[in-house]
């Protein structure tokens, strides 16, 4: 059975989050947590919280322990872009795009 959790509107660009997500895909939950704890990237902290949230969902709703679970799939999709402007020389402006991410994780039993 598949167990899912979602994180929406994360204020980190999807390109940066995918680097972290690719490193835990297919790993056991324990191994994924161990890897995420020691990663330097800023996006490792929200992904770690998402993995722990998915494990808590399975524990509370289905009585499945974390030792039996592994990361079946983790997808990082593009969210809405916040558009801002930066004042420039001689009264002009240049655009700034602040990207957001939607992350979905699916856990499965071994």
From TrEMBL:
GO molecular function (one): structural constituent of ribosome
PANTHER family the record matches: CHLOROPLAST 50S RIBOSOMAL PROTEIN L22-RELATED (PTHR13501), LARGE RIBOSOMAL SUBUNIT PROTEIN UL22M (PTHR13501:SF8)
Homology family: Belongs to the universal ribosomal protein uL22 family.
Membrane-crossing segments per the record: none
Lineage: Bacteria, Candidatus Giovannoniibacteriota
Cited Gene3D superfamilies: Ribosomal protein L22/L17 (3.90.470.10)
GO annotation, cellular component aspect: cytosolic large ribosomal subunit
Example of a GO biological process term: translation
PROSITE patterns with a match to the protein in the record: RIBOSOMAL_L22
Signal peptide: none
The protein's name: Large ribosomal subunit protein uL22
Recorded name of the encoding gene: rplV
Subunit structure: Part of the 50S ribosomal subunit.
Free-text function comment from the UniProt entry: This protein binds specifically to 23S rRNA; its binding is stimulated by other ribosomal proteins, e.g., L4, L17, and L20. It is important during the early stages of 50S assembly. It makes multiple contacts with different domains of the 23S rRNA in the assembled 50S subunit and ribosome.
Pfam families, sorted: Ribosomal_L22
NCBIfam families, alphabetized: rplV_bact
Keywords: Ribonucleoprotein, Ribosomal protein, RNA-binding, rRNA-binding
Top-level taxon of origin: Bacteria
Region described as Disordered: 90-110
HAMAP family in the record: Ribosomal_uL22_B
